[in-house]
Please model this.
Amino acid sequence: MPGFTQIPNDEVFDDPLWTASPFTKGQAYIYLYMLAVFKKSCVEKRGAIIDLEPGQIGYSMDSLARRWKWSYGKAKRFLKQLEKKGKIEMQKTSVSTTITLAHFVENGKQLENKRQTNGKQRENKRSPINIDKNDNIEKIDNTILHSAAKAPQLINIFGEEFKSYTDTEYHASFGKDRKILKSLENQYGRDDVIAGIKYFFQVYIRKDRFSRKNPNVGMLQTVWNGMVASAKEENRYQREIDDWVNE
Model:
């Protein structure tokens, strides 16, 4: 059936009907269209600037797997299937993978994304910037986070996860907590910090007595490296299981 469908993101993709269970393959495919940028933009990955065109997605496979509630191996196989069918194109670099949707719609017109690439994204190393103490760092990051104006603040996301875990409101030390979260975002990227917050409350804190005693933003920063090591070990084990199942 020709044409395209407009879907209100907040009303559909944030609804528990959509997010409660692991995604189906159909949901995962639709979600790629929701994540695609609608205008020229860029994201930062490990200090490199990745340019994005309309219809491209700047999320890692790990991030997509977490959003879909899948294993890394399942997400990777699914994306390879889509690429074989000509529905997406993946361009890899040493720091990221950019996904290009083959049939993206922009301003009511379908774009047939058949870009000639050499399999590499354009990476521009960020030049050193002298920042005055009174400068607002968010102004600098505004060109990197294309949807920052609409995206919820990290402190709010932390508060929501805290309330879900403790059933009480989080009383933030806004200046200190925001500074810590901003520091983590500058180091690891917004998506990884959000994933880290969710992992902290949904997985790590349940097995770590030390962090369970005082689950605040400062504790998140303290145990961050331990969480990363724990998550990597869990991912490694899950990939071994996936490989064994699919032999």
